[in-house]
Design brief:
The protein is an alpha+beta fold. It has helices spanning 3-9, 23-34, 53-62, 82-115, 128-135, 164-167, 180-209; strands at residues 45-50, 74-80, 119-123, 142-150. A four-stranded antiparallel β-sheet has the order 1-2-4-3, sandwiched between helices.
């Protein structure tokens, strides 16, 4: 699947078929998380793969009793090790960079799932202590997200999304444009004009020094 199509077609799936996921596909999802960017290439994450039914039920309980989660045959819990990020980047690393790193890994996993015809959902509502106990997570690690994965048993309608004009400022905060498509067209013309001018300048330089 093309990347942009994958991004556009991804949905949060909360109903799953009673069908096991091939381990090769699970491996691809985990590998996509491993390849995510991280601050200073620190890779301060650990992924816990959970397929046991009893553990999936405990995870669902820890996630504010979202029992639909237990129907997903695969859970991946993304954890961060704040002490590693804090050691390199101080308080900002502990409070922000580690969360960003885990989020990048999570998004990669969602897209890798969609690309392989799987459904997935990013769950961030959970009681940390319950999740840590259920999965024996070390004290120096924190669960950041739970990703449910399986073959989808629903086709959710596309959610409402804001337009580019509503979420994009140009050059500075608050500077909006009414027609983003028109702006992109203008910008493309500007880039093309600048590229043409550069090529002409290079050609003149070559002609000058080749005489």
């Amino acid at each position: 699947m093309e990347t942009l199509n994958c991004i556009e077609s991804r949905r949060s799936i909360r109903k799953y078929l009673d069908k096991q996921v091939e381990f090769e596909k699970i491996g691809n999802v985990l590998n996509a998380g491993r390849l995510a960017p991280s601050s200073g290439n620190l890779q301060d994450w650990k992924f816990i793969l959970v397929t046991e039914q009893d553990l999936r039920k405990q995870i669902a309980e820890a996630c504010m009793q979202q029992y639909w989660m237990a129907t997903a045959p695969v859970h991946i819990v993304i954890c961060n090790q704040p002490v590693r990020t804090e050691r390199m980047y101080g308080k900002r690393g502990e409070e922000l960079y580690g969360i960003q790193n885990a989020a990048a890994a999570a998004q990669n996993m969602l897209l890798a799932s969609t690309d392989q015809g799987l459904g997935s959902c990013w769950v961030g509502a959970f009681q940390e202590s319950m999740l840590q106990r259920a999965l024996s997570i070390d004290d120096d690690a924190r669960p950041m997200a739970v990703i449910t994965i399986g073959y989808p048993d629903e086709v959710p309608q596309p959610p409402m999304k804001q337009t580019l004009e509503n979420v994009t400022f140009i050059e500075r905060w608050g500077s909006r444009i009414k027609d983003f498509a028109a702006y992109v067209g203008y910008y493309s013309q500007h880039v093309t004009k600048a590229a043409t001018a550069s090529r002409e300048a290079v050609q003149r330089f070559i002609e000058k020094w080749s005489r």
